[in-house]
Amino acid sequence: MRGFTRHPSSGVSEKTRGTYAGLIEKIPYLQELGITAVELLPVFQFDTQNCPQGLVNYWGYQPISFFAPHQAYSSRQDPLGPVDEFRDMVKALHRADIEVILDVVFNHTAEGGHDGPTLSFRGLDNSIYYILEEDGAKYADYSGCGNTLNANHLSCDE
User: Fold this and answer.
1) Which member of 3, 54, 84, 136 has the lowest number of beta carbons within 10 Å of its beta carbon?
2) Predicted local confidence at residue 83, as pLDDT
3) φ and ψ at 67, to 5 degrees?
């Protein structure tokens, strides 16, 4: 979505380039091509600075907030802009008989390993949200990203 509409040659209006609204503008083109489904790289809010110095994290594989559409992908910057625009994009694609497939990241977060920043789950309850090594000092790294979310935790009352 971002890369598809970001460049001026995309034909998308300047205000909506690289946004959910920009993809809405491209729906007639997608239909002309016979496209029946689009797959979007991660669209959750992610850390754009979680990458080597001097670069920008373009891909979105370092989530900060699950289920919150990435603000930079919205042409609206008001608090509800990203949510409304993402919803409108999905509805518009569905009305055009185009399915939406989301590439999601649920195995780790942008908080990284033991020396990573505290952005969300680590600050709420580190031992519940992450799989820790036996000593509890380091994160299990089954994801290859420095931490692995504990998707098997059932409740705080176990």
Assistant:
1) 54
2) 97
3) 75, 5
pLDDT band at 74 (very low <50, low <70, confident <90, very high): very high
pLDDT digits (tens, 9 = 90+) for 122-156: 999 998 999 999 888 889 999 888 899 998 876 65
Report the Cα–Cα distance between both ends of the chain, in Å, rounded.
42
Q: Is 2 left (phi over 0), alpha (psi -120 to 50) or beta?
A: alpha
The span from the CA of 50 to the CA of 25, in Å, is 30
Helix (H, G, I), strand (E, B) or coil at 44: strand
Contact assessment for residue 121 and residue 149, using Cβ atoms and an 8 Å cutoff: yes
CA pair distance 68, 65, nearest whole angstrom: 6
Angstrom distance (rounded) from CA 110 to CA 50: 7
Whether the Cβ atoms of residue 58 and residue 18 lie closer than 8 Å to each other: no
User: From CA 15, how far away is CA 155, in angstroms rounded?
Assistant: 44
Given a cut of 80, is residue 12 above it in pLDDT? yes
Sign of CA dihedral 131, 66, 103, 111: negative
- DSSP β-ladder status, 99-102 and 37-40: parallel
